[in-house]
Fold these 2 entries.
Entry 1:
Amino acid sequence: MGYEHILYESNAAIARLTLNRPDKLNAFTTAMHAEVRDALARTRTDGSRVLVVTGAGRGFCAGQDLADRAVAPGERRVDLGESIEKHYAPLVLALRRLPMPVIAAVNGVAAGAGANLALCCDLVIAARSASFVQAFAKIGLLPDSGGTWTLPRLVGNARALGLTMLGDKLGAAEAAEWGLIWRCVDDAEFPAAVEALATRLAAAPTLALARTKQAIYGAWERSLAAQLDLERDAQRELGASDDYAEGVAAFLAKRPPRFVGR
Ligand code: LHQ
């Protein structure tokens, strides 16, 4: 599949997916969703060990393209639930279920579903000039793409409700202070910081990181006893992995490990 609305490449185990409608702050259309779906399927099979999602131009993603035919202006009977069911919910789950770390490299404004897609990634790194906007209330909607699930878990109900009911911009520095995102870095350092993070994760024990994200995301739904069982089972699996053998051998030989991701 050739892409018109995104860029995708995978080099040296680093997959890079760039939302590429800069004139519209990379807002999602139905066509863009199809391309992202295709690219994420490729990431699973092309040898990638980390995925970086970012935006072209001055924005990360402005959420749903409000002019796309999926939500034609003035059309009162449009079924937004269908758009969520077909596009946004599967995308959130695909990112969460990708068996490797996913970095959201938030280069500029992330609004609506664009903000919540960033926040469902495993590590969110943002340029200082970037911002997060829960724009939904401004157009009479509630936060989707997992926002009502992710936000209270990340920042608690007080801040989740303030952010979503007011829909004001939250700058990247404050987002990092609040624990909404992993890191905020100066704009000049942003590309190098993203590259360093991706390079480091591409050489990490991928299977262990995949099990780590699965365990942490699922922890909210399990009891401590069930979580301990899950940790036992996952550790049993990882204990038989090439990367565990390599990690221990490297530690004992006082040399850096060479992980293969399995
Ligand atoms: C856009 C958009 C946009 C189209 C900027 N659409 N053109 C799921 C299921 C189904 C349906 C509904 O929604 C959802 C989930 C959602 O995502 S709902 C939330 C949708 N997103 C928004 O409501 C955000 C709308 N955008 C904004 O509030 C602002 O553009 C932000 C705060 C993101 C950035 O503001 P500025 O930096 O001042 O940029 P701008 O407003 O001048 O935008 C630049 C261009 O991008 C402009 O186009 P133009 O041709 O006039 O230069 C905007 O119209 C276009 N654009 N967001 N979502």
Note: The chain has two domains: 6-202, 206-253.
Entry 2:
Amino acid sequence: MDIFFHEKTKLFHLCNDRISYIIGILPNGEPGQFYFGKRVHDREDMSYLVNHEFRAMMVGTPDDETFSLEMNRREYPSFGTTDLRFPAFEVIPENGSHVSAFRYVSHKITEGKPKIAGLPAVYTEKDYEAKTLEIMLSDELTGVGISLFYSIMRDYPVITRNVVFANKGSEEVRIERCMSLSLDLPDHDYTWMQFSGAWGREKTPVEKKLEAGITAIGSLRGHSSANHNPFVILKRPNTDESAGEAIGVSLVYSGNFLTQAEVDTYGMLRVMTGIHPDRFSWRLKEGESFETPEALLVWTGSGLNDLSQSLHRLYRKRLSRGIWKEKERPILLNNWEATLMNFTEESVLKIAEKGKEAGVELFVLDDGWFGVRNDDFSGLGDWYVNKDKLPEGIAGLAKKIHDMGMKFGLWFEPEMVNPDSDLYRAHPDWVLASPDRERSLGRHQMVLDMTKDEVQEYLYERMHSIISEAGIDYVKWDMNRTISECYSIGRNASEQGMTYHRYILAVYRLYERLISDFPELLFESCSSGGSRYDAGMLYYAPQTWASDDTDAVERLKIQYGTSYGYPVSSMGAHVSECPNQQTGRICSVGTRGNVAFFGTFGYEMDLNKLTDDEFAEIKEQIVFMKEHRALIQGGDFYRLISPFEDNYCAWMVVSEDKSEALAAYYRILAEVNPGRRRVRLKGLDPDSLYRTDDGEFYGSELMNIGIEINEAPDVIKLPRGDFDSRVIHLEKISK
Ligand code: DGJ
């Protein structure tokens, strides 16, 4: 890994074993994008990549009309002058002009990777793991400076980027748009893959061939959202899971975002991601600076599985933090689907005791333990225990759970308040709301104005005191509504465009304070399931509740879709009761387990209601998971058959040293007298012999001949019926 700088030609080349990212200085003095992709040889002069030409209707620079920014590839494009494509940023001085002229002034190359104050970011543990290039630009007229940061990681085919604006001038300016990255590519022969959906059906891959014009996704909901995820893939038309070129673009941010691809009339492609410019306007006073969130570029020449695995490893090892990031996650039992809010200490202890008997390690008390909260119409915001339900308080219940030998976890939804709550009655101005207008409700609740110090302090004090008094081991941090009327009461008009971003900074701040007070606490983020499942959240909470849809068959799609961008170790997945509460589907406890194994496994049901046989099976599942979770949560994940395209789904994980693997396949609907079907495994050592329940096979056999996955009519290997599944353990027995 290195960053070469060629003084004479002012050429920067960031590279590691796999990728190169090359930046030159264009004739007008601003940085230009010369190359991003597979590693290329370093050289001093690449000025052949600068276009000089004269075309009809082209706007050129006054001293050289053959040079137009629109005909060139730029690193951080402004709007106006000679480029009228969508810009990456706009800095507006008091005279209202959108025109700027940011030119290269200097640069710095440093070992390691700097932190971004108050924002999540990929980090290094040792300086030699990354190098960082900072390119400083300045606009002479306003005195504003822009620093473009690029870090190249030694062990990942990844470039991280962010931007810092510094007002060194003598008047206030407004930042109206500040994308975290913009990447101009020379052609647009890509298929755009986004991950979209809604509550209960998160992260469905959607593909579009890029054509002239704009392709974009985003969120103006105040959270990254289940509607669109801030992660997209651009793949070449022939790229599949195991071969071909692709670029991943991920924004490490949990608020409003825009990810956009613009194909111009000459076929060039401009990709950008960052804070959504709508509803955003940041006042930058003299002497102040503003940092954008981080964005990641990941490149592969070896297919989508490889791209996903690079991100999985990066997120597990250098984005998630703390003691839990690579530790085996506790098998949990959550009472939500078992009791909803109707519980007493006695009833939850009964569920917990059965969990303990089954081998569960963490009992989680979900919504309903505070205020007057028997349904979702009241109580949110009143973070004081409900003594009618829990006479000995949270500390009393936690002690009983701890005495049983389990950890204890608790649900919070700090960002919200019900109008029917003591908190709202006392502080009606603590919510985001437009003055003198109706306040919309979502799930009968409003959003607290987290940007206010008094709100932050109230929540910090309440959470800190409950966590410390009761010795809580795990927190599920929920967020169950989208933000509407994003207005901060009491602040002046010119600051309202800062509210969405300030809100998410405040959420991050509260997380950060609790993490530093309780470094051993395990956080699981949740937003009605996966409505805030993004790389930003993984910096604070290494696991996310992937979806409120706990149906095993539906979960195949949700977990498969999620795996494109996020690791198995981050996916909250539980076995829930039958018929399933979201779909009414009946599915064996075996298949429910076989799906939930590929996540941070747990249960969400009253285990007392199971038959003896089912309970015995659950005990076996827990033994199985304890034995294999290090492999599942720390191994390399391979997608084998997509449930979006097939009646089957298959995936597998392989340990880093290839000594062990688990392959799973699922047949969704039963077929009568089915045709033959084999699946080829991946990632094994071709010349090693592996032991499986069905015999011993070389890795090369398993990966090329594959294994049979349908039920032959005369061999009853699998239970019959719909929603059938099997998990196969493979262990290397010889080289
Ligand atoms: C939404 C979450 O996704 C559920 O798991 C549960 O915690 C409920 N909120 C509680 O209100």
Note: The two ends are 32 Å apart (CA to CA).
